[in-house]
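Q: What would this chain look like folded?
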Amino acid sequence: MAAGSLGETMAGAAGPPGIQGASLNALMARPDQFVQTLTVKLMTYALGRGVEAHDMPTVRAIVRNAAAQDYKFSSIVSGIVKSDPFMKQMVPTAPAGADLKTAEASLH
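A: My prediction, written as structure tokens:
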């Protein structure tokens, strides 16, 4: 596996306390399932909202791309950052009629 890949990281690590060899082997038997769960969690954080059904095709595309790149973490993050849900997310704006000073004051 390539440097920085999920398999190399997990195979070379002792693992968190409580994960035994059998559990680690079960996890590594389905890396796509692990990477999908990780992608959903990261997207939830990145989007500032839960991942919804209409986001799942994007999640699956990110997982497929990560698989082609040996599940590198950077491929997952890059896929999220380049995804439509991330690129097109709404940024909160100041209420109508509020000026810049009012908006800045509400932040402090």
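Residues 6-90 form one domain.
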